[in-house]
Amino acid sequence: MKLLLSCSRLLRTLLGSLWLATLPAHAADVCAGLANARVPADQIGLPTSGAVVRSARAVGPLGQSPDHCELAGEIAPVDPAAPPIRFQLNLPAHWNGKALHFGGGGFDGSVVSATGNVPHAWPGSSTPLQRGYATYGSDGGHSGSDPDASFARNDEALRNFTGEALKKVHDTAQALLLRRYGRLPSLTYFAGGSTGGREALSVAQRYPRDYQGIIAHYPALEFVGMMMRANAFAQSLYGPGGFTSWGKLETLNQHVIAACDALDGLADGLINNVRACRFDPQVLRCWSNIDWGDSCLTDAQLATVRTLSDTHPLAFRLANGLDSAPPYGILYGANFAGPVDIGTWPELLDPPVLGLNGYVASMHSGYLKHFITRDPAYSPFDFDPVTAGPWQARVQTVSALHDATSVELGEFIQRGGKILLAHGTSDTIVPFSVSVRYVQRLREALGSDAVDQFLRFYPVAGFGHGEGRYTLAWRSLDLLEDWVERGVAPKRPTMRNLLDLLGQERPMCSYPTFPRYRGGDVQQASSYSCARR
Predict the structure, then answer these.
(1) What is the pTM of this model?
(2) Catalytic residue among 236, 268, 427, 527, which?
(3) Is there a catalytic annotation at residue 217?
């Protein structure tokens, strides 16, 4: 195996050398000439100490990578104690005049290369770089990996992660594009999922002049509210008798599917008609509250389920007036039986260990320690998830920085901006109801007809946080290009389940409609209509 890897690396090196040898000298020289290029602070719309390109590398065509110049650089902070923002910008040899900003994930912390495809792209579709887009991404303003949140104890690093890095990277990329091509992009898009989805909608809200199109998947818009709920969940899960085994959660999920699966006209393990789904987990209560095994849940375990299935109340308001956190879809298909979801260990470790502790519980521990209290020794079990206790004002301050819940999209809309939003109903990290609430608030603020002019929201049954029983693939970038550049709005796109070897397809139905089976080949999107009930 090591010999094969060595031969593969040698072949790649030889191919790269051969390509460089045949590359027109001026193209390689232009790329090399961008090394050490500087962008002064006055060309970046938020305070920095300027940016510099640390390396410039000509990359030849190989796999999904076309001829391009790869720039790696840093944006220097104002605070010398803050980390720089590291970024990568890819400049195609044959530029289409457009740019695409890729979002990050989790707490960020590693540079997004932006050389691959947009999230959940159609199999075999060309990447943005192959299409001629200049692409870029960053590390969000610090180095690290989930669930480490220690960077947030620095104010500038916190502001960068929660939104300022997006503007700084965008402006730096624009300046370098102007230097390389002699003109600015005619259009700039943003694509991301989870934190990247929050970032996608954040730029539409905060920097509406900079982007003309958005692709957002399962966006973590209400991050602070999610962390408040996560604390209530953790206190129940890791409290006396509250830990709920995978087997019990599988039992719960099977009963939910049995109750609601056929409400969309087809019993296929996917609950499309989530609004009609009703299941009371109390029917699974263990007789006499004695834990008889995986077939039932005790009162303490049912209480843990309710911390996920119920709206979590707050005794104060977060950014944009929100006073609650929307529920997870555990009672309409979201399955929490797994190492990422519930974990395997009945105690919250300090620091948490992903896999032993679930992802959300792990992330919230670091969030309270570093974003909120800024005390690495703080215990999440001392926090009040309803009132926030003495930390209420701090929670509100962080919410104003971190959450992307504003419905003030006037300038983005007036400039012709478009948004494609997709979210799985079975998401166990970012609740599907977060996207539902945001779209409902938009409709209340702007009117449904106005929202339909710039946004499409597509629920995906059985789709979790990037994967699931239905693992989404769709032509999102094609749809966005058609809408923004040609004025052709999406009507009923087709999606495909990447887990199905036969290529199972469904129509993507704009919320609140859902795919209802009408008869015919269950694998074909034409066998379904978009129904309201």
Answers:
(1) 0.94
(2) 427
(3) no
